[in-house]
């Protein structure tokens, strides 16, 4: 049974542009539609999740989703939204990235559900034997230079220069749509709003080359409420690959969203229905400090991207960080312990230095740069502003010895409420 896919996107705030008659077509029949993914990395990032969720809702509405991984377009480079030309990838790197992205996409879409099973295609398959002369004859002659120059992705770059390689990108992407329309019955291309010009070039090519009809739909580009770019944390991009962004950091990214962003994200990145989200919003408003929306969002997406076990570990680690004891810290795996405190100042001292005990103020002022002097360290300790392994230091005569090491290796020093420092004892 076909459900109203466009209405689903609309209430979720995921609809930006839509070509006339697209909604009527989608409500009338099962449509095959596709979205292209850029293979410049061997992992998709949370920014790609908008398009993954679009395909997921598309399939849930009864339509057939195709994910196109751009083996050919990755060799050219999309100028849309870019201020400078990207480095082109060699074939080995490209193939590695494509295979890694395929595995990630397979986690979200259903590839075994009959007529509307998901598929993954690679545009290199139809471009690899397509000669340049054939391309400019069979594709280039149908789209005028004037038409191409009018596109924002081109206009925004002309002042500083643009290579022919990038200029031709919209023709290459347009041909993808034509090829899939002709050979796979694809009637709809979707993507981010910055792709509208490229997508419409495809519908125009189909019309001019074959007098066919095709349709377009885009989602808005997601930005944070403060106007900054979505998908980046303090340490850089947030990836779906656990080796690039750990499940703990992935969970924290969503948990730390502002209230305004969380209201937006929970519609876009989860599968909660409208009623469930409205209930969560009411609950959140009653006690904002409990961060009901952020917790629901972080749980849903962490489980789907990683696993329930990873989610539980992330929650436990978060609780230990804020409320745990030194015993709790010792229960964490070394990997998770270091992950929690990644990015904080780290200092090394030798085990010999603490073998027979050493005054904490000596370590803080002389062996590290946590305090500029012993006097400053004593003053902060006397004011109750220093904690050692989550325990407040009561006396400036506090000593450190081997019995206090976490995992037989670490000492955690807290200066104030949020200023953590890690001493590694070797």
Helices and strands in order:
Elements: H1 5-11, E1 17-18, H2 22-28, E2 32-37, H3 49-60, E3 64-69, H4 91-105, E4 119-122, H5 124-127, H6 132-138, H7 145-149, H8 152-158, H9 164-167, H10 169-184, E5 186-192, H11 196-210, E6 215-219, E7 232-233, E8 236-237, H12 247-255, H13 259-269, H14 274-286, H15 292-305, H16 308-323, H17 326-331, H18 334-340, E9 346-349, H19 351-354, E10 358-359, H20 360-367, H21 374-382, E11 386-388, E12 391-392, E13 399-400, E14 410-415, E15 419-425
Parallel strand pairs: 2-3, 2-5, 3-4, 5-6, 9-15
Antiparallel strand pairs: 1-6, 7-8, 10-13, 11-12, 11-14, 14-15
Keywords, separated by commas or semicolons:
Structural Genomics Hypothetical 15.5 Kd Protein In mrcA-pckA Intergenic Region, Chain A; five-stranded mixed beta sheet; 3 domains; elongated; Tyrosyl-Transfer RNA Synthetase; Rossmann fold; 426 residues; alpha/beta; 14% strand; six-stranded mixed beta sheet
CATH class of the largest domain: Alpha Beta
Query: Would you tell me which CATH topology of the largest domain applies?
Result: Rossmann fold
- Specify the helix fraction band: 40-55%
CA distance, first residue to last residue: 64 Å
How much beta, percentage-wise? 5-15%
> Architecture of the largest domain in CATH?
3-Layer(aba) Sandwich
DSSP summary, beta strand count:
15
Indicate how many domains the architecture comprises: 3
Structural class call reads alpha/beta
| Spatial order of strands in the largest sheet | 1-6-5-2-3-4
Unreliable residue stretches: 81-86
Q: Please, what is the average pLDDT? A: 89
Largest sheet: 6 strands, mixed
CATH superfamily of the largest domain: HUPs
Radius of gyration, in angstroms, nearest whole number: 27 Å
Give the count of helical stretches.
Answer: 21
- Using the alpha-carbon principal axes, give the shape: elongated
């Amino acid at each position: 049974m076909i459900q109203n896919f466009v209405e689903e996107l609309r209430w979720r705030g995921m609809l930006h542009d839509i070509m006339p008659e697209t909604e009527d077509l989608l409500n009338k029949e099962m449509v095959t539609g596709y979205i292209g993914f850029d293979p410049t990395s061997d992992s998709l990032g949370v920014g790609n999740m908008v398009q993954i969720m679009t395909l997921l809702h598309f399939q849930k509405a009864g339509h057939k989703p195709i994910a196109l991984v751009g083996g050919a377009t990755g060799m050219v480079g999309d100028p849309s939204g870019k201020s400078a030309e990207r480095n082109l990838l060699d074939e080995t790197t490209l193939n590695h990235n494509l295979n890694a992205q395929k595995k990630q996409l397979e986690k979200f879409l259903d590839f075994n559900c009959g007529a509307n099973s998901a598929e993954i295609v690679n545009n290199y398959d139809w471009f690899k034997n397509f000669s340049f002369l054939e391309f400019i004859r069979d594709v280039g002659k149908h789209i005028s230079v004037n038409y191409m120059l009018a596109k924002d992705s081109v206009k925004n770059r002309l002042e500083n220069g643009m290579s022919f390689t990038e200029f031709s990108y919209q023709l290459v992407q347009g041909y993808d749509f034509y090829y899939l329309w002709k050979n796979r019955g694809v009637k709809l291309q979707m993507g981010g709003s910055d792709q509208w010009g490229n997508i419409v070039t495809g519908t125009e090519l189909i019309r001019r080359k074959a007098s066919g009809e095709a349709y377009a739909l885009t989602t808005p580009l997601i930005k944070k409420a403060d106007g900054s770019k979505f998908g980046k944390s303090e340490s850089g991009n947030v990836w779906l690959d656990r080796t690039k962004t750990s499940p703990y950091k992935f969970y924290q990214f969503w948990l730390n969203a502002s209230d305004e962003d969380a209201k937006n994200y929970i519609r876009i990145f989860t599968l909660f229905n409208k009623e469930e989200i409205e209930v969560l919003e009411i609950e959140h408003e009653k006690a904002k400090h409990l961060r009901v929306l952020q917790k629901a969002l972080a749980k849903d997406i962490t489980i789907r991207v990683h696993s329930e076990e990873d989610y539980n570990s992330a929650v436990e680690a978060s609780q230990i960080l804020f409320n745990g004891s030194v015993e709790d810290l010792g229960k964490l795996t070394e990997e998770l312990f270091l992950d929690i405190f990644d990015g904080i100042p780290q200092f090394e001292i030798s085990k010999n230095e603490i073998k027979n005990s050493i005054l904490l103020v000596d370590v803080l002022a002389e062996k590290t740069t946590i305090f500029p002097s012993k006097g400053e360290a004593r003053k902060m300790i006397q004011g109750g502003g220093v904690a050692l392994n989550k325990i407040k230091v009561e006396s400036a005569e506090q000593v450190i010895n081997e019995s206090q090491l976490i995992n037989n290796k670490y000492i955690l020093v807290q200066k104030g409420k949020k200023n953590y420092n890690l001493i590694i004892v070797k």
